[in-house]
Write a structure and sequence with these properties.
The protein has nine helices and no strands. With 226 residues, the chain is an all-alpha fold. The longest helix is centred in the first third of the chain and has 53 residues. Its main location: membrane.
């Protein structure tokens, strides 16, 4: 289990460092398309790098979706999620330390890639829009993960399919919530950004977890063959 926890922490660090890091350090240069690809490519890298060790969940919602589908024992959920939160927090801290080396960087003004919604945040979408997007996007994401990692699916393609799906989700939703579909990814930046990011965090915990659990139950009931 220690090896699995280490892999989950490292993988979630990779996701936050490359995904949120691209938004904070290179957002103006690469735009939303570039940020979307950074998140997707980070998943591809982590999936092929540590997938054989822990399954490369990198996401509490994915872990709970795997439990709901019967793919993961419930007893492993807590250590997985704890490791993911640690990895995400370290990733956000490293981004903050790097960004702070730029003379005109301000955490309050420039942020840390945190998720949000409403007035002053990207497209200024409503709470209901944020909840719907995060629920639906996480449902789709977890369904793809469960399908791509099934014993009957081509194993060599799983990481690519999952990474491309996450990139596509970002292309649809960055302007809505910044895209979470991952409570750990939201937690890490919010810890340091504070304020509205922490106040909004419940949205990016509740909606992804609900979407993932529904996906896990749906996959188990309708599609599972293993």
């Amino acid at each position: 289990m220690l090896q699995k926890m280490s892999a989950e922490a490292l993988g979630t660090f990779i996701l936050v460092f490359f995904g949120c890091g691209s938004a904070v350090l290179m957002g103006a240069q690469i735009g939303m398309h570039g940020i979307a690809m950074a998140f997707g490519l980070a998943i591809v890298a982590a999936a092929y790098g540590i997938g054989a060790i822990s399954g490369a969940h990198l996401n509490p919602a994915v872990t709970l979706g795997a439990v709901a589908s019967g793919r993961l024992p419930g007893s492993e959920a807590v250590p997985y999620i704890g490791a993911q939160l640690v990895g995400a927090t370290i990733g956000a801290l490293v981004i903050l330390l790097i960004a702070s080396g730029q003379a005109d960087y301000s955490l309050a003004a420039n942020g840390l890639g945190q998720n949000g919604f409403g007035a002053g945040y990207l497209g200024e979408y409503s709470l209901s829009a944020a909840l719907i997007f995060e629920f639906v996007a996480t449902f789709v994401f977890v369904m793809v993960i469960l399908g791509a990692t099934a014993s009957t699916a081509p194993a060599a393609m799983a990481g690519l399919a999952i990474g491309l799906t996450l990139a596509a989700i970002h292309l649809v939703g960055i302007n809505v919530t910044g895209v979470s579909v991952n409570p750990a990814r939201s937690f890490g930046p919010a810890v340091f950004a504070g304020g509205k990011a922490l106040a909004d965090l419940w949205v990016f915990v509740a909606a992804p977890i609900m979407g993932a659990v529904v996906a896990g139950l749906t996959y188990k009931a309708v599609f599972a063959k293993d």
